[in-house]
Amino acid sequence: MPVTPDQQAEIDALRGEPKQTLRAVSEGMEAHLYKAAPVLDHGFVRVIDYMGDDAAICQAARVSYGKGTKSVSNDAGLIRYLMRHWHSTPFEMCEVKFHVKLPVFVARQWIRHRTANVNEYSARYSILDREFYIPRAEDLAAQSTVNNQGRGEALTGEEAARVLEYLKGDAARCYDHYEEMISDEGQQGLARELARMNLPANIYTQWYWKVDLHNLFHFLRLRADAHAQYEIRVYAEAICDMVKDWVPAAYGAFEDYRMGGANLSGRQLECIRKMLKGEEVTQESSGMSKGEWREFMGVIEG
Ligand SMILES: Cc1cc2nc3c(=O)[nH]c(=O)nc-3n(C[C@H](O)[C@H](O)[C@H](O)COP(=O)(O)OP(=O)(O)OC[C@H]3O[C@@H](n4cnc5c(N)ncnc54)[C@H](O)[C@@H]3O)c2cc1C
């Protein structure tokens, strides 16, 4: 269960007490505020706070005194211009703070994004819950044969059942030992900071994660991408749904130029120019490696 009934009651109480403010408010983000969007079997993402909206990006770009005189369509045009030309600082004027509950192995990938502020649940101080990520049957896949860093076909039959049993059984046994070791009934009880080393990487942790919109887009570009591991991608996708409602114009520009766009090298552009002139270009004549050629064809053929 992503949130307990008590936690849900706290969220409802927060949402039941709206406060008046003079600050910029994004109606789209207000609809998400505090709510937990479930991710994986026990995880979630929820927005705790945010600052700024599409207009704030334009205000910063124009260094204006108020809302300015420009229309919404002008704002959207300016935002697209900023995104297209990598003029990133106006996007840094917007910030967002999330509360995320995620498996430890996902957290290890996530924490590599250094341009954010993090505070994690302390397993030195608190006892971790008995909550482990157990993949759905369709997400239990074999090692990919074409990509060393990925998965291929779903496991089937007896192998799938055995793997699932291992995952569940190992997690349960490790947690039983964890509980036994920290218990002070009839024994001294091992310190929590030591007992936790027995827990597998699919146990859930939690953190508050605050980031500005520019660096959030960088995170989403990498982690909502098809090459990202499924278990972090689903978090990035849940965040995309929130950002889309928070700053629709900025998200639209991001979707178009970053998620939907592609970077081309000088060599690749030269190939496209030759192709447009009707010249034959092959992998051998292009000067690209087989892998780069495959990626290039993937970009231009869609
Ligand atoms: C598909 C995929 C596979 C990956 N595989 C591996 C792997 O096998 N092994 C592994 O170790 N990692 C791996 N990573 C992690 C990856 O190398 C990055 O660490 C991670 O994506 C964070 O990116 P970042 O540094 O750009 O982000 P951030 O840390 O948020 O930084 C954002 C930008 O700020 C700048 N910046 C931040 N800190 C510094 C600094 N100290 N010095 C200079 N510039 C800085 C850089 O321009 C950087 O791009 C993988 C990531 C992805 C998406």
Automatic annotation (TrEMBL):
GO biological process annotations for this chain's record? dTMP biosynthetic process; dTTP biosynthetic process; methylation
Q: Which UniProt keywords apply?
A: FAD, Flavoprotein, Methyltransferase, NADP, Nucleotide biosynthesis, Transferase
Q: Where are the transmembrane segments?
A: none
Q: What note does UniProt attach to the cofactor annotation? A: Binds 4 FAD per tetramer. Each FAD binding site is formed by three monomers.
The UniProt annotation places dUMP binding at: 109-112, 120-124, 196, 223
Under Pfam families, the record lists: Thy1
Cofactor needs: FAD
Name the positions where FAD binds: 89, 112-114, 120, 212-214, 218
Name the residues annotated as catalytic in the UniProt entry.
223 (involved in ionization of n3 of dump, leading to its activation)
Source species, domain of life: Bacteria
Quaternary structure annotation from Swiss-Prot or TrEMBL: Homotetramer.
Known function:
Catalyzes the reductive methylation of 2'-deoxyuridine-5'-monophosphate (dUMP) to 2'-deoxythymidine-5'-monophosphate (dTMP) while utilizing 5,10-methylenetetrahydrofolate (mTHF) as the methyl donor, and NADPH and FADH(2) as the reductant.
Q: What family is this protein classified in?
A: Belongs to the thymidylate synthase ThyX family.
Protein's UniProt name: Flavin-dependent thymidylate synthase
Record the organism: Salibaculum griseiflavum
